[in-house]
Amino acid sequence: MKPPKVTIVGAAGGVGACLAHLLINAQDPYEIALIGRSPQSVACLLMDSASLAPLGRTPIVGHGETQDFHDSDVIVIAASVPLTAWAPRAESMAGNAEVVHPYFREIAKISADWRGHVIVVTNPIDVFSCWLQQHARIDRSRVLGYSWNDSLRLRVAVAKALGEDPADITAWVIGEHGDAFVPLFDRILAGGKPVRLSTRQRESALADLRTFYTRWGRLGIARTTVWTTAGGVARMIQDITGRRPVEWTASVALNGEYGVRDVNVGVPVAMDAGGGLAVVEWDLEPSQHAALQRAASVVRQLVDGLGGL
Question: In terms of Cα–Cα distance, which of 248, 250, 268, 259 is closest to 296?
């Protein structure tokens, strides 16, 4: 049986290269097509991957082109301009829009009956996944923005506040992958059981989450969260291609869910019978619902400024 095909745009960057390595070493095999900013950068990765063969399964990795999009099971867009320490995600939008634009134009040509998924990792992910969805023919459930990191960071912060193992915590963040995020403190589980944080614990966890990017920037290293992002995207790919239960959020185009229409924000999703991803509607508190509306408004305004493909 032919292994699932994953095309990675931005393969020479930190996230792209790390993701490729994780997929090469995954339990199930993948065919991986690498697209980088230069042929030389991809050639280096291919030389490197060839030397992995004596350690186990021979990697199925090759130099990719945009034509690989059409028969891919997953397309990952992780290309971006070089990062600048301290810069908010939205400040790189203009440069990143130029980078992803030619790839989005090609994805927009994919047939409407394509059964794969696009995962947009380039920031701002809500804006770019929405921009792509507005011009693509494929179903809205197949264009995803990677927004799981916020929930993972909240889980770590909650575990710290409770003195628990982060692996035992379930916590969720929806909304924008940026300042307009919406943490759902009423849905926290510890060891599978509901937990209500004290005011102090909640404030501590929220402070950790809200200041994460600032604390990262203060280190002065122009580097994204490579391991977390690549690890999260790899898990998404494995769940999607393996038709496994989905336990993550993604930025998808809403069509009336949560009272939002025609804009992408992070929400919980579930695999449907056709292998697509359906939005899961949770009951939100009034303040959470209002915050989600604000997040949608922020994203909509930024997308409107991008124009067409």
Answer: 259
DSSP state of 38: S
CA 80, CA 181: separation in Å to the nearest integer?
A: 22
Closest CA to 34 of 52, 59, 9, 51: 9
Two tokens, residue 166: 């982060």
Which amino acid, 301? Q
Question: Which of 267, 272, 269 has the alpha carbon at shortest distance from 243?
Answer: 272
Pairwise CA distance, residues 294 & 146, whole Å: 20
CB-CB neighbours of 3 under 10 Å: 15
Task: Give the DSSP H or E segment for 40.
Answer: helix 39-50
239: helix, strand or coil: helix
* Range with the poorest average pLDDT among 131-135, 259-263, 275-279: 275-279
Nearest-angstrom CA–CA distance, 307 and 295: 20
pTM: 0.96
Q: What's the first-to-final CA gap in the chain, in angstroms?
A: 37
Query: In this structure, how many other beta carbons lie within 10 angstroms of the beta carbon of residue 191?
Result: 11
Chain length of the chain: 309
Q: Mapping DSSP to helix (H, G, I), strand (E, B) and coil, where does residue 117 land?
A: strand
| Residue labelled with tokens 């989005």 | 104
Q: Which pair of tokens denotes residue 255? A: 């069509």
Cα gap 141→89, rounded to integer Å? 24
Gap between the Cα atoms of 209 and 275, Å rounded: 32
Residue 124 preceded by cis peptide, ω within 30: yes
CB proximity list for 200: less than 8 A, separation 6 or greater: none
34/38 Cα distance (integer angstroms): 11
Say how far apart CA 111 and CA 103 lie, in whole Å. 15
Reported as a single tens digit per residue, the pLDDT across 25-53 is: 999 999 999 999 889 999 999 999 999 99
Q: Which of 101, 110, 103 is nearest to 308 (CA)?
A: 101
φ, ψ for residue 226 (rounded to 5)?
A: -65, -50
What's the maximum distance between 2 C-alpha atoms anywhere in the chain?
Answer: 57
